Amino acid sequence: MVDRKRLGGDQQLYQDYATHLAVDPIRQELYDSACAGHITINTGPAKYPEEDQAKMNDKQTPPLRGEIEGLARQVEHLIETCGDLRSQNEELRAAEEQVTREKEELVSRNREAKRRIDLVVDRLRGADPS
Predict the structure, then answer these.
(1) Statement to judge: residues 66 and 128 lie in one domain
(2) What's the domain range around 107?
(3) Number of domains in the chain
(4) What Cα–Cα distance (Å) separates residue 45 from each residue in 7, 20, 23, 28, 42?
(5) 77-96 residue pLDDT tens
(6) C-alpha–C-alpha distance, residues 8 and 23, integer Å
(7) Would 1 be classed as within a structural domain?
(8) What is the pLDDT of residues 54-76, one digit of tens each?
(9) DSSP letter for each residue of 19-81
(10) Are residues 118 and 80 both part of a single domain?
(11) How far apart are CA 15 and CA 21, in angstroms?
(12) Is there a single domain that holds both residue 86 and residue 102?
């Protein structure tokens, strides 16, 4: 709905457009809510600044400020946690690479040991005159 104070108290304009028009809170201009299109009437800044000031000093401001500060602390905590997780992830990847290299080395040593054992067994079988 159109706020009469924002229209400068123009009663006729309010009555003509009260059913279709609203004030865009960002642009401070009227728009036709039926077709969602802006019209050329610009309401400008509020004619009653004390009304806006009363809204700012409302009882909801301290709880809202506290909620915003709480959210800011949570975001900071999440940023710290994200940084910790990144560093842990890097450490785990490095450890995984090291374990993979060690495993490959052990598999290689195991194959070499098996090959040598097979050679010794073949020599023993070949040298056995039975």
Answers:
(1) yes
(2) 61-130
(3) 2
(4) 10, 21, 11, 7, 9
(5) 999 999 999 999 999 999 99
(6) 13
(7) no
(8) 555 556 677 888 899 999 999 99
(9) TTEEE-TTT-EEEETTTTEEEEEE--S-S-HHHHHHHHTSTTHHHHHHHHHHHHHHHHHHHHH
(10) yes
(11) 10
(12) yes
